[in-house]
Every structure is written in structure tokens, then in C-alpha cells.
């Protein structure tokens, strides 16, 4: 597998609206845009290239050296999304501001007082920043020509795990809360992204693409012994903070029906994945980016309606934040359908933080978790529900 420029890979990987249609096969000297595992329904097949077309729809090395300026959610060459006024009674609060660039990948520290997020506010390359939840000043933790993404706090709040292209491919790293003492956790030619700490802080789970399977794999790394073990297939794994179970939530493409991403959990028992459970699935939307509530009893996630529908590779479907109990019951919508709403993170203050462009640019917003009161019509099986609007 040859190395690919970080900017190109980040666009395809972390533009969450593209997750439902991103390639999940392995990489060669060319990077193919769509893939069989990418989750598009038969009805949407016309919107995706056939396998023969896919072979000709590639990024050549010369193309990849200067990709269009694309932010993490798919805006090309600085074209701003039209500003929209917020509406509804969700108690929305904006936390970050910037004149240029975009914010992404927000997470909360265990105290609920600090935000960590990636941003291009000062560079074309995303760096990692800290900011108090109730503040406006930012602390820049990284500053080089690499790309950075997916910061996440350790359970004691003293370290941050993240992924970066600082050594070529996407790899997982850990640093102190002040940005010092950076340690590289993963190596090799595969792409490793989206770390998450176990509740006791001794292990990290992450996704890897580029192994023998040619799919997104979920790996667990023991920080004390250095042992790494693959536990299954999926993307965006996140460890439950509930210490009474060893549970991980993740997204995975369904093998039937729409083949869009749905929300799953697994329990680790003796290092093996057990009780692999589909918690939430939609008939009309991809479910992506799960995050746990502080008590581990609920999950928040984002939905992208009709993810194959795009205008110039820009997703057109509604994108919202939802919550659900970890047993799949009580599914509720948090956001109001205004603008893009993605990448949720559940704070200890019982507010859900997320990235939204509801005022024109991608910034960090939050809403009270208990304001998620818009119900959806749920039949006997969770996967039969639609993910748009409210039930009548």
C-alpha cells in the first residue's frame, strides 16, 4: 500500500457526510472513490460508479499532489455554505468562533470544563486546540504541516490521544494535556484513526484500514504491554465509560438492505468480541459517529439522510444529532434539521457538543441532552425507523 497525501485521505475519511460512501477496501497506488462495502442501496446504484467505472475514477499521483481545498465536511475551494437562521427550542449554544477555516472532531474532558477539537483556523492543515467550554481563548497544542484529527481525553484528563499524518500515514499518538511528550502508538503502512480510551485508561481502541482484509478493522492496543489485537470490523469505535462492562460502540455497514452504516456495540470478553449487537439502523439514513453518555447508558450519533445523494460530491441529505438508549429504545432527535450537525460528544454537564454550520461556518455548538424530545416513529424493530422529522 503506497502512502497517500494526508489532505486527500482526510477529506475522504473524516468528512462524515461521506462516510456512507467512502471506500472501505484496501489501498493501492490509486485510491478508488466508491466501494462495494460503502453502503449505498440498490435504488441509489445509479448514483455510484460501476466497478468498471470505479477503476477509471482514480486519484493519480499527480492529481493527489494538489487536491482541491476541501474542508472536513466537503466544501470546495473556500465556497461557504449559505448562512441559515436557527429555529426551534433546543437550547443551542455556540462555543467556538473563527474568521477562516473550520472546526471539527470536538470532544469534552472528564470534568466538562474543556473542549479539545481540530481546526484550520490558523492553517490549511488541521491542528488540535484546547478551549474552556465557557471561554473564547484557544490554546494551540500542535503546529506543523501535518494534519491532525480526532483528539480524545484520557479518563483522568491528563493526556490526549489523537491521529496525525506527521510521519506520512495516519497514525495514533498520545500526548500530555499541554501538547508535550508525544508518543507514537501505531506504525506501518495502514491508516490508523479515531482512538478512544478504555475506562481505566490502560487500553486504546482505534480503526485501521490497509490490512489483509481490505476493510476497516477495529483494533485494541494495551498501553502497558504494547500488545495489539484485532477484535472485528467497523469504524469510529468509542469505549463506554461504564466500568461494569467492557463495551465498545462503533458504526458498520449493513450487509443487506441499504448497506448504509448502522450503530453497533460489542462486549470484550477475554479479549474477544462478544454480544455484537445492532443498536440503531435507519431505512433512509446512514448512522455515524457514535459517542457515549457519561454513565454509559445512552449513545448520541449523527444521521445523514440519503448519503448517496450529492451535488458535486457535497452531501445534500439532512444531517442531525440523535440520542438512543444503549438497548436501542427511546430514540430521539436533538437538532432541528438546520444546517449540518455532526460529530457529537456528550459532556459531563449533560449537554451534547457537536459541529454545526447553522450560522455559516463549522463551529462547536451544544444542546442540552434532555432537550432531545422530538420522537421518531419506531416500529417493533429499531431498524425500520426513518430518521427525518417527527412522528405524527
Give a concise summary.
The chain has helices at 6-14, 51-56, 61-65; strands at 31-32, 58-59, 93-94, 103-108, 114-119, 127-132, 138-140, 148-153, 159-167, 169-176, 183-184, 191-197, 203-209, 217-222, 228-233, 235-239, 247-253, 261-269, 272-280, 285-292, 298-305, 310-311, 314-315, 319-325, 332-333, 341-346, 351-356, 363-368, 374-375. With 392 residues, it is mainly beta. It folds into 2 domains: 6-65, no CATH class; 93-384, TolB, C-terminal domain (Neuraminidase, 6 Propeller), CATH 2.120.10.30.
Any idea how many domains?
Answer: 2
Helix percent reads: under 10%
What's the CATH H-level homologous superfamily of the largest domain? TolB, C-terminal domain
Strand order, main sheet: write it out: 20-21-24-25-29
Do you know the CATH topology of the largest domain? Neuraminidase
Shape: globular
Q: Tell me, what is the CATH class of the largest domain?
A: Mainly Beta
What structural class do the secondary elements suggest? mainly beta
- The number of helical elements comes to 3
User: What is the makeup of the main sheet?
Assistant: 5 strands, antiparallel
CATH architecture of the largest domain: 6 Propeller
Radius of gyration: 19 Å
Amino acid at each position: 500500500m503506497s502512502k497517500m497525501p494526508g489532505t486527500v485521505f482526510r477529506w475522504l475519511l473524516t468528512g462524515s457526510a461521506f462516510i456512507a460512501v467512502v471506500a472501505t477496501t484496501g489501498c493501492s497506488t490509486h485510491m478508488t472513490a466508491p466501494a462495494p462495502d460503502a453502503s449505498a442501496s440498490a435504488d441509489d446504484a445509479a448514483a455510484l460508479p460501476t466497478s468498471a467505472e470505479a477503476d477509471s475514477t482514480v486519484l493519480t499521483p499527480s492529481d493527489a499532489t494538489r487536491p482541491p481545498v476541501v474542508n472536513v465536511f466537503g466544501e470546495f475551494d473556500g465556497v461557504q455554505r449559505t448562512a441559515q437562521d436557527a429555529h426551534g427550542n433546543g437550547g443551542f449554544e455556540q462555543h467556538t468562533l473563527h474568521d477562516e477555516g473550520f472546526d471539527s472532531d470536538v470532544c469534552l474532558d472528564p470534568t466538562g470544563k474543556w473542549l479539545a477539537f481540530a481546526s484550520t483556523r490558523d492553517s490549511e492543515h488541521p491542528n488540535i486546540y484546547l478551549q474552556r467550554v465557557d471561554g473564547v481563548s484557544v490554546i494551540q497544542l500542535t503546529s506543523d504541516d501535518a494534519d491532525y484529527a480526532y483528539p480524545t481525553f484520557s479518563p483522568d484528563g491528563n493526556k490526549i490521544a489523537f491521529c496525525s499524518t506527521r510521519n506520512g500515514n495516519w497514525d495514533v499518538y498520545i500526548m500530555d494535556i499541554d501538547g508535550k511528550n508525544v508518543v507514537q502508538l501505531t506504525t506501518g503502512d495502514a491508516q490508523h484513526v479515531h482512538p478512544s480510551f478504555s475506562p481505566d485508561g490502560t487500553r486504546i481502541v482505534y480503526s485501521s484500514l490497509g490490512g489483509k482484509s481490505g476493510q476497516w478493522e477495529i483494533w485494541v492496543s494495551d498501553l502497558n504491554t504494547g500488545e495489539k489485537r484485532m477484535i472485528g470490523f467497523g469504524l469510529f469505535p468509542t469505549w463506554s465509560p461504564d466500568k461494569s462492562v467492557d463495551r465498545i460502540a462503533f458504526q458498520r455497514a449493513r450487509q443487506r438492505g441499504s448497506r448504509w452504516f448502522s450503530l453497533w456495540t460489542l462486549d470484550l470478553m477475554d479479549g474477544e468480541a462478544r454480544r455484537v449487537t445492532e443498536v440503531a439502523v435507519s431505512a433512509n439514513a446512514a448512522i455515524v459517529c457514535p459517542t457515549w453518555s457519561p454513565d454509559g447508558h445512552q449513545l448520541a450519533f449523527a444521521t445523514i439522510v440519503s448519503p448517496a445523494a450529492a451535488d458535486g460530491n457535497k452531501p445534500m441529505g439532512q444531517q442531525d444529532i440523535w440520542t438512543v438508549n444503549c438497548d436501542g429504545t427511546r430514540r430521539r432527535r436533538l437538532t432541528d434539521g438546520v444546517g449540518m450537525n455532526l460529530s457529537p460528544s456528550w459532556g459531563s454537564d449533560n449537554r451534547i457538543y457537536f459541529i454545526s454550520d447553522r450560522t455559516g461556518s463549522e463551529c462547536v455548538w451544544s444542546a442540552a441532552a434532555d432537550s432531545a424530545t422530538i420522537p421518531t416513529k419506531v416500529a417493533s424493530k429499531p431498524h425500520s425507523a426513518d430518521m427525518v422529522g417527527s412522528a405524527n
